[in-house]
C-alpha cells in the first residue's frame, strides 16, 4: 500500500543563460544545463541551490525547478 509520503513527486532542475534579466527566454537552447530529475522537492532544491551558487558570478545564468508531478497529474497540486 502506498501512502502520501511514499509518492514520487518528480522535480526537474535545469538552467542556462537568459537573454534578458527580467525574462525567462534562454540565449541558446543547445547550451541548457540539464541538472536532473529528482524524487522530491527537497533534493531538487538542494541541486538547484548548488548550481545557482556555483554560477553566481554570471548575472544572466538562472536555474529553475519544474514540478513534473504537476504536469503528470495536474488535478493534484501537491508540492
UniProtKB/TrEMBL annotation:
Superkingdom of origin: Bacteria
InterPro entries reported in the protein's UniProt record: DUF4170
Name assigned to this protein: DUF4170 domain-containing protein
Organism (species): Methylocapsa polymorpha
High-level lineage: Bacteria, Pseudomonadati, Pseudomonadota, Alphaproteobacteria, Hyphomicrobiales
